[in-house]
Amino acid sequence: MSLRLVRRMAWLTLIYMILVILWGAFVRATGSGAGCGDHWPLCNGTVVPRAAALETIIELTHRLTSGVSLALVVILFFMSRRVVPKGHGLRSAANWSLGFILAEALIGAGLVLFELVAHNASLKRVFSMSAHLANTFALLAALSLVIWRSSPNPHSHSVTCFSRADLSTLRLPLFGALLLILAGMSGAIAALGDTLYSAVGALPLQAYVDGDVPFLLRLRIIHPFLAVAAGGYLLWLQTHWANFHDDSTFAKLSWAVSSCTLLQIGLGFANVALAAPIWMQLVHLGVGVLLWTAFVFQSFIFHSKSK
User: Fold this and answer.
1) Which residue of 68, 73, 134, 238 lies most exposed, with the fewest beta carbons within 10 A?
2) What is the pTM of this model?
């Protein structure tokens, strides 16, 4: 077994995880989260339900694919422990990946067991979905770190601890990551509102000001401001990091981050104009996930070159 094999496995896991995330969004958008009732890990009290409704099939498929993703991360965890010694940064990245995927499973189970799915519009569901999104982004970052620390780049094999100097150089990307997570969390809340109140349609701004709309719909007005703030910061950061464009990989990632940022802003306006159809929600989320992943890899390179 070699680092190259671990890296390939990590890429496979990361790509598969993105597909699972998109299917999870499809579960939420179609209101199929309660397709297995309030049973977990069983589905409606059985392992394989008979004469299952479409919502049940959608939810059960999500559970099965999520289980495969857990298995992939566990395999990646043990692979990393075989190829590198104790103290290697790759082990730390694999440990984080395992921790976040377990947290992902627990959050998913909690959503089902506490019935925070389907048409539930409670504040508990808002907080749980926000936590779910933040943990998902952290999981993608951890898997990206596994890829980075299994790469031939000598700077990627750093030890698990960060010095004060390291944290100082990471301030800019960390702030960008925070803005992206906040934008993603508010986006998840906005998407939930679009799903639960799809029949309401477009509302005038004054209705939000007067409080004549449901609480969940009032929250979605926060998302455009956070999204524009995050996008503006990322675009500024690309110009601030122009000196690092001599690295071809960094330059390509910079182009990807800038392109995805502008595309996301355009998709956001299109999503509102089209009244948030399911396919547009999935495209919007997919580009957001790609933006997050590209920015994470770019931050790794920036950190290595700043040492």
Assistant:
1) 68
2) 0.90
Lookup result for tokens 């969390």:
185
Q: What is the mean pLDDT of residues 243-270?
A: 92
Q: Residue ranges of the domains in the chain?
A: 1-160, 162-307
Please give the Cα distance from 123 to 117 (Å, whole number). 12
CB-CB contact of 83 with 31 (8 Å): no
Cβ–Cβ under 8 Å, residues 173 and 302: yes
Q: Tell me, what's the pLDDT at 252?
A: 94
Where b means 16+ CB within 10 Å and e means fewer, 62-71 reads bbeebeebee
Residue 303: closest CA among 134, 176, 211, 116: 176
Specify which residues 48 forms β-bridges with.
Answer: none
Between CA 241 and CA 246, with CA 245 as vertex, the angle to 5 degrees is 135
